[in-house]
Amino acid sequence: MPRPFRKIDKKLFAKTFSNIISPVLETIPQLPKLEARGNRPLQMTFEDQLKILVYFHLQEHKSGRHLLQELEENDFARAVITPEAGIKKSSFFEALNTRGLEQLTIMFEKLQTLASKRIPHRDKHLGEIVAIDGSVIEAVPSMHWADYSQSQKKAKVHLGFDINRGFPKKLCLTDCKVDERPFASHLLEKGQTGVMDRNYQKYSMFDLWQEDGKHFVCRIRFDAVKTILKTNEIKPKSIVFYDAIVLLGTTNVNQTEKPVRVVAYRVKDVDYWIATDRFDLSAEDVATIYKLRWNIETFFAWWKRHLKVYPILARSKYGLMVQLLGGLITYLLLAIYCHEQYNERVSIKRVREIRIKIQNEALSLYETIPKKKKKTQSSKFLKNQLYFNLHAKT
Q1: Domain segments of the chain as ranges
Q2: 20 to 30 A from 313, CA-CA: which of 6, 64, 90, 241?
Q3: Exposure on the CB side of residue 15, measured as CA atoms within 13 A
Q4: pTM
């Protein structure tokens, strides 16, 4: 059992980590209480679970075992992250797979509201823009709920991404074979404009979204059947070469009931055909909105590479959702921190700088511990990790 560190002034030795995580700690009292299932007492409070998940995503641990090793041997992690009585492997993975999802979901929503207030809105004239897309997560053989083929297991995250402020909004988790299009309605709120690629082209959805007061900017096939109701003037030397109000689809088959605007533009010899109900914007603004959709692709790549979608810690759908929410909450915390400290969006350069700051604070903590109380294994583990982080390329 690790020795306790509760008498240490954590604010002094964990200033960076404390600043990053402070927005969620302020919200925890407002959440439903995490309760044990059965007669066994909880080994981790929700605060413990949340701090461990954020620490896991921030520090790029190689596996759950690597994380638990650090929680046991790293002086800084034991003082600031680990529950006072320590955490056993079985208790950690049981908690990950069975507890905390309700609290994390509410926390994620509350943190979005906070981030929306603190992070400025860009391109206000374009309105609230949410990129919608799905991304595949390579699963492991024991994840039976994520059947993809006889030899492969894959899950899919369906995500709404706030382009104006640069952070994730909503998500759903399914197996990989599910149709993406129905999830757009769940990820999109009234008054927002969903930006989607051709996978979401469905004329009945275009009508439904307009009825629900939800806007869309969706790429469509170049050969989509169009019944022209009105053509709009094209500006000279514009990248736009087509702008018309139409009914999409074949009459009496799949034609839209409500008029749709179709804008086509050309970039580097590639033509993009866009369907939208944003009649209030210029054709160039519609093209700009679709170009901004690339932000969600960049986010998916960044998230998977730098915030530890892999390794997968849990095998159940519940546990994977807990891990994913932990990663998205970490990203939101970084978005708030980077804006308030540097007035910029999240970047890997800043994240690496934050990791080095945390390790420097860990070194300060290590140097305050009396030599006779230092464990050789812990000292070596901490020093090696500090050396690696301090010499990592930025």
Answers
A1: 10-104+313-390, 198-291
A2: 6
A3: 8
A4: 0.85
